[in-house]
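Late entry, written up from scratch paper. The run itself happened at the end of the previous shift, but nothing got recorded in the book at the time, so transcribing now.
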Amino acid sequence: MGAIQRLEEKFNAEESSFQLYRSAGGYQFLTKPAYQASISILLKQQSKKRLSTSAMETLAIIAYKQPISKTEIENIRGVNCDYAVQKLLDKGLIEITGKAESIGRPMLYGTTLKFMEYFGISDLVELPTPKEVSTEVNTIGQNTDLKEPDAQE
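Output as recorded:
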């Protein structure tokens, strides 16, 4: 039996308040969900601040298109993304991965291990495909949920 399996068995026991969690190509010891409320009260921790919509949009573009330059991100979003990129760099969710060979040699951005930990994935292939996150679009004449009004009402 491997060391990881022995650790998983040990920490899956009910008397343990920790669990072994696979994340970002490695493992972490995390508090079991049953103990989170108690620990939060004891440590008076604030929950993670949510990312703004613009930061999430920028992060999604980087995650799916990396390595990507700021100009390419702005062309996709249609707006300046300096602030969002800086905030994502500050939070350690993205990093500079190199420089493009194009004119001016702009910096290229990619996601970090912290990004994968933040979203609970081990590999970028675990990102949902655009098909999985798209919502169905109604077109005229296809909604069968509507009822015809009764003439007697």
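The radius of gyration is 23 Å.
(Scratch paper discarded after transcription.)
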